[in-house]
Design a protein that fits this description.
Elements lengths: L2 H29 L4 H25 L10 H28 L5
Length: 103
């Protein structure tokens, strides 16, 4: 393993551990446990962090090289898919909170 990678990992692991510990507490203090947006933000923020780490690993190991064949397309599909599902889920939560139920 390269020296720069070891330094990067040594910096990122404590930052990630602190974030994992502190972020849920901030969300609960800010929105409360019962708020539907608390779980949404928790899920998609952690999802974005780990998705980003996965994308960085794929790019750094050169498993996906933008500009090579269809790699750019698949990278765009992955990112667009995350944005689509996060947006769709957010819209669903918003509609469940604001639209009246008939019946």
């Amino acid at each position: 393993m390269k020296k720069e990678n070891k330094i990067l990992i040594a910096i990122l692991i404590p930052i990630l551990a602190i974030f994992i510990f502190v972020y849920p507490r901030i969300l609960i203090d800010w929105l409360g446990k019962a708020n539907p947006w608390t779980s949404y933000l928790y899920q998609y923020t952690f999802g974005l962090v780990f998705f980003g780490i996965g994308i960085l690993l794929v790019l750094r190991t050169k498993a996906c090289i933008p500009g090579r064949g269809r790699d750019s397309l698949w990278l765009k599909i992955l990112i667009a898919g995350f944005i689509f599902f996060a947006s769709f889920h957010g819209l669903w939560v918003y509609m469940s909170l604001t639209w009246p139920v008939k019946g």
